[in-house]
Design goal:
389 residues, alpha/beta, 8-stranded mixed β-sheet, two-stranded antiparallel ribbon
């Protein structure tokens, strides 16, 4: 006998609320307790923090999977890039995009990756339940707007040097579009028409400010070049961000790869966070199409950088049009240095292992019980001392 949709929704919301109540507070408390390690053993602290952070991402992935929303990947295999410094860029359609990427990052084909990722996200995320976790982990929040653009890019550059590099992060995750597709489509197409760019139907023209800042900071030092920060919004088009000094990095700290992900939902109808939490949409499969490019091949000059990322987004538009028409992505074109057998249009399923998620839940619950017991013991001891007075 099938479970009624209402009962299923109630069960899932209770399950997810409990997940949040016993996982996020205990993670934060452990980070406070272990904070002194940062003084003499920062690498150990960052390693422990990264493990706890990755467990939380596993729980989010489990919410998606248990709702019946499967994930598959096609295109280039990037499992050998887990330990490499990569910039991951993706189209942005809905609130389900982040859980889907968390699902990808925590899959067993990419071991230990989730503990070393670095997110660049809108500042509004800071005020969610997961915002405190991201702050402790060292993710970066972008405050959008023409008035703060230059200062935000300078802050991002400093944050990369202060957090991303010292903490040994590997993959940087960025949504260059800077907003959801349905909210930005009209203004993006108007901007494209005005400036002679293709009118995209399934994605919006990307903003290049953060993309440029990351490349200029993490690629081998080159001559400073101002790059136009083109933003397809009515009151926020282009501005120049200057980099007056080049950052000298060790070779192993340089950005090595750019991974371009195209998120495709069935029939072009994106899932959202409400669907994932309540499970109120029919089970379906989302496909992530991956392409990999050597970061050093991207020109840092104004015209070359814009051409490169706008070309990628025009390709995304064509890929999504093909996917919505046929139900799968086309074969990836040849990429230098990539084995031919890694490129195919057939998606590879990414199943999750239930026992691992049950173990993570059990560890978080035991940790919560331990913290509550210690708190109870301390309060009882204090109460006992006062009662003797």
């Amino acid at each position: 006998m099938s479970t009624s949709p209402a009962l299923k929704a109630v069960f899932r919301i209770v399950f997810i609320l409990l997940n949040n109540l016993f996982s996020i507070p205990t993670y934060l408390l452990w980070m406070v307790i272990l904070r002194p390690l940062l003084i003499n053993h920062p690498d150990l602290y960052n390693r422990i923090e990264g493990i706890g952070y990755s467990w939380l991402l596993h729980l989010v992935a489990a919410w998606t999977w248990t709702g019946g929303y499967a994930l598959a990947e096609s295109g280039d295999d990037v499992s050998d890039l887990v330990g490499s410094r990569c910039l991951v860029i993706s189209n942005h359609q809905s609130t389900a995009d982040v859980p889907m990427l968390m699902y990808l990052l925590t899959h067993e084909s990419k071991p230990s990756l989730a503990r070393n990722v670095y997110w660049i996200m809108d500042v509004m995320f800071k005020y969610t339940n997961f915002g405190w976790v991201s702050s402790v982990h060292g993710d970066f929040y972008v405050r959008q707007g023409r008035d703060t653009r230059e200062s935000q890019m300078n802050e991002l550059r400093a944050h990369l040097q202060r957090v991303y590099i010292p903490r040994g992060r590997t993959w940087i995750l960025l949504f260059p579009e800077g907003g959801f597709f349905h909210k930005r489509k009209e203004s993006s197409q108007a901007y494209a028409k005005k400036h002679g760019y293709p009118a995209l139907e399934h994605v919006t023209l990307p903003r290049v400010g953060a993309f440029q800042t990351i490349l200029k900071t993490l690629l081998p030092a080159s001559s400073p070049t101002p790059v136009k920060n083109c933003v397809p919004e009515e009151a926020n088009h282009c501005g120049d961000v200057e980099f007056s000094d080049s950052v000298r990095l060790k070779k192993e700290q340089h950005l090595e790869w750019i991974i371009d992900i195209t998120i495709a939902y069935p029939d072009g109808k994106p899932l959202d966070l409400v669907n994932i939490v309540f499970g109120n949409r029919e089970p379906c499969q989302t496909v992530l199409h991956l392409r990999r490019y050597r970061a050093e091949d991207v020109s840092l000059g104004e015209d070359g950088l814009l051409e490169w990322i706008y070309t990628r987004w025009a390709e995304k538009d064509q890929l999504l049009a093909h996917y919505y028409r046929t139900g799968q992505f086309p074969d990836s074109p040849a990429t230098e240095g990539i084995d031919d057998q890694r490129r195919n249009g057939k998606p590879r399923m990414l199943p999750l292992k239930a026992r691992w998620y049950l173990l993570i839940n059990a560890l978080f619950m035991l940790s919560t019980c331990l913290h509550l017991y210690v708190l109870y013991s301390v309060v009882s001891a204090i109460y006992g001392l006062f009662s003797l007075l």
